[in-house]
Design a protein that fits this description.
The longest helix is centred in the first third of the chain and has 58 residues. The protein contains six helices and no strands. The chain has 185 residues and is mainly α. The chain has a single domain, classed as LemA-like domain (de novo design (two linked rop proteins)), CATH 1.20.1440.20. It is rod-shaped. Helix content is 78%, strand content 0%. Helix 1 packs parallel to helix 3, helix 1 crosses helix 6 and helix 2 packs antiparallel against helix 3.
Length: 185
């Protein structure tokens, strides 16, 4: 009788450990998936920028320094390794500043502001920026859930034994970066 109780407890403990481990895996995959979503929106943003620069360039050719800053910032942001959250945050802060500079240049050209292609690019950028903001919020929520789960007792024991570590939040150093790039004229 005692042996049956001990075996039952051991089996329940094993089932509980497996269940907890699988829960960690599900949360980890959710975090990875949400980070992938951010990268997709960043890629869309990066792909849109050359078109935006070329459109503005047609009207403001003498603003070469601004175009170079945007292009360099875009290339640097696109070159960040896939899992480097803080690198992506920093590179995209620089890119956001460069984009604001480009859009400020565009402000000085009324004929550019009336250009249909430019208006479509503005709209696409605004949409991407909104999607990107939503993706960042969702990513941070999944990281919060994952980090909480692997740091709470008794999960912390299994997480440490299994090599699960806390993930980084997508945090902006400059609170102005939390706002979408302004594309209205």
């Amino acid at each position: 009788m005692v042996l049956i109780i001990i075996v039952s407890l051991v089996v329940l403990l094993i089932v509980w450990i497996i269940s907890m481990y699988n829960g960690f895996i599900k949360l980890k995959i959710k975090v990875d998936n949400s980070w992938s979503d951010i990268r997709v929106y960043l890629k869309k943003r990066y792909d849109l920028i050359p078109n935006l620069v070329n459109t503005v360039k047609g009207y403001a050719a003498h603003e070469r320094e601004t175009f170079e800053k945007v292009t360099e910032a875009r290339n640097a942001a696109a070159a960040v390794p896939p899992n480097d959250v803080q690198g992506a945050v920093q590179a995209n802060q620089v890119l956001g500043g460069a984009l604001r500079g480009l859009l400020a240049v565009a402000e000085n050209y009324p004929e550019l502001k009336a250009n249909q292609n430019f208006l479509e690019l503005q709209s696409a950028l605004q949409s991407i920026e909104g999607d990107l903001g939503n993706a960042r919020r969702y990513y941070n929520a999944t990281v919060r859930d994952y980090n909480t789960t692997i740091q709470q007792f008794p999960g912390v024991i299994i997480a440490n034994m299994s090599g699960f570590t806390a993930r980084e939040f997508y945090e902006l150093e400059n609170q102005d970066e939390a706002k979408n790039v302004e594309v209205k004229f």
